[in-house]
Design brief:
This protein has nine helices and no strands. It has about 220 residues and is mainly α.
């Protein structure tokens, strides 16, 4: 019985993380690119839009996940039709992690050598070509490392979400470990979470190292 619950909890957690991370990646990178290219002196300079979007990103990043999850209940119901369960957790997880990842990716994009961008401009490259062939390739190791950090943070947040009805390992630890004082369940869930984080961190570090052309 415990094995079945652990298996289901692990699958639910992986589903939450998988769906949320995919959306975060697809939306976070374009957001980071906008924040970098629309700033003063950027190739798509739009300082007013940059300031407005940047302020929204900062506000979302400053809200604790538990509070954000509760505040987004009406929006979550609108999107997935419920505020309870795995898919309901995907919405606040995504909303919380997109700005977090975007800021990390932004740092990596800003570290791209300005001389490479100026050289591409001097050669007559179009702005989108600079984004696709200069900014993104040069920043890939940092973006991968930042996405790894985001995934680890997402696992922590999913455990919190699980404890308040989202399912997954957090729900298992809260209902069967904490409320029933079952130390075996608590320890098992902790071990599974540590293993999951370790695997993700190891894989992300290896990929970032492989993509680093300056090593």
């Amino acid at each position: 019985m415990l094995l079945d619950r652990l298996l289901q909890g692990t699958l639910d957690t992986l589903l939450m993380i998988g769906a949320s991370s995919l959306i975060t990646l697809l939306l976070g990178i374009p957001l980071a690119l906008f924040l970098v290219t629309s700033t003063r002196g950027g190739i798509f300079e739009a300082r007013w839009a940059n300031g407005a979007i940047g302020s929204v990103v900062n506000v979302l990043r400053s809200i604790p996940f538990l509070i954000l999850m509760v505040a987004l209940i009406p929006f979550t119901r609108l999107i997935v039709g419920t505020s309870y369960g795995v898919w309901a957790a995907v919405v606040p997880l995504t909303v919380a992690c997109i700005p977090f990842f975007a800021r990390i990716a932004e740092v990596s994009l800003r570290e791209v050598d300005r001389g490479l961008i100026e050289a591409a401009q001097a050669m007559g490259c179009r702005r989108w070509h600079i984004v696709w062939h200069v900014l993104l390739p040069e920043a890939r190791p940092g973006i991968v490392a930042g996405f790894t950090i985001t995934l680890v943070s997402m696992i922590n947040a999913s455990a919190v979400a699980g404890a308040i009805g989202a399912g997954g390992l957090g729900d298992l630890a809260y209902r069967y470990g904490y409320q029933r004082f079952d130390t075996e369940v608590m320890v098992t869930v902790i071990v599974l979470l540590v293993l999951l984080v370790t695997l993700i961190q190891f894989g992300g570090d290896r990929l970032a190292h492989a993509l680093n052309k300056r090593k």
